[in-house]
Amino acid sequence: MVNGKKLNKILLRIFKKYGLSTKHSKICSQALINAELVGAHSHGLSRLKMYCKRIEKKIINPKPKIKIKKISQSISKINADNCIGFVAGEVGIKEAIKNAKKTGFGLVGIKNSGHYGLSGYYAEKAVKKNLIVFSFTNAPPAIAPYGSRKKLFGTNPICFGTPTGSKIPFILDMSVSVINRGKIRLAERLGKKIPKGVALDKYGKPTTDAKKALKGVQLPIGGFRGSGLAWMVDILSGVLTGGNHGGKVKDPFDDFSGPQNIGHLFIVIKPNLFVGNYNHRIKENIKRVKRLPKIKNVKEIFFPGQNKFYRFKKNLKKKIYISKEIQRDLNNL
């Protein structure tokens, strides 16, 4: 167990050692600690060793020259220069927020980035500025397009956030696979089984073996619908932005042949574009759902992000659990 301040110091030391600036080290440390605090351990410290290895292999650029090109007052495109994804995500969402504050709408496309952690982490930054946000990013092949037996699309998360008129943001951050790939990787590392019905092995047979699942394919939510959503995100974050797409995104853990060139897309909107009383309307919308009759043993109907918010607040007061494997990584790095 370690408190957040001590862990932050350790992570800053590690990222600086691997060549990142103090500013960029802080961005990375905050993103990883946030993942641990919201309970998304598959996107937290378990990935630290991978990021450092990719920097060491000169696949992630620790000293990027990030270029922001304004297309209009509302639209910007960013070349992230193969920097660590956390930095690209931070620069991108700030640019989208700035554009939206000026014109009511901000659109930012990013190319030459890497894995940026939790989409909801960036969405929350926009929501805190009283803005509506969509966030898209593609990922390495994991899901087979419907009708194919070969994986091509990533688990490509879909993320949406909105202010709620309260301190708790509405953040829908969901993978289009039954579970995200990070959870399978974490299970493999810890020698644990994965749930039934989430993956097939390389022969197309259902498996609960994490190692076999990583070599096979993950199953999308809703069959062909989930496959279609994965394709949509691949187009929005890959084809549109200039990033890799169509199965070309490299696996960050296994493929060190070159940069990932992941694409991200942020769409940020002022909530009062069409109505002046958005906060009143969204409060009423949420109240109507929460007033619905509940099934047995359910005390409250939560909106997306509410449970995660409570978990974050609770964990913020506690020390962060560090497994033996992660402690070994921290010591080695």
| Main structural class | alpha+beta
Low-confidence stretches: none
Q: What is the helix content?
A: 25-40%
N- to C-terminal distance: 18 Å
> What is the arithmetic mean of pLDDT?
95
The radius of gyration is 20 Å
The strands making up the biggest β-sheet line up spatially as 1-2-3-9-4-5-6
What's the number of helices?
11
Describe the model.
By secondary structure, this protein is α+β, with helices and mostly antiparallel strands. 40% of the residues lie in helices and 14% in strands. The protein has helices at 4-17, 22-37, 48-56, 85-103, 119-127, 181-190, 210-215, 224-239, 278-290, 306-316, 324-332; strands at residues 67-70, 75-79, 105-113, 132-137, 158-162, 170-174, 199-200, 217-218, 262-269. The strands form 2 sheets. Strands 1-2-3-9-4-5-6 form a 7-stranded mixed β-sheet, sandwiched between helices. Strands 7-8 form a two-stranded antiparallel sheet. The longest helix has 19 residues, at 85-103.
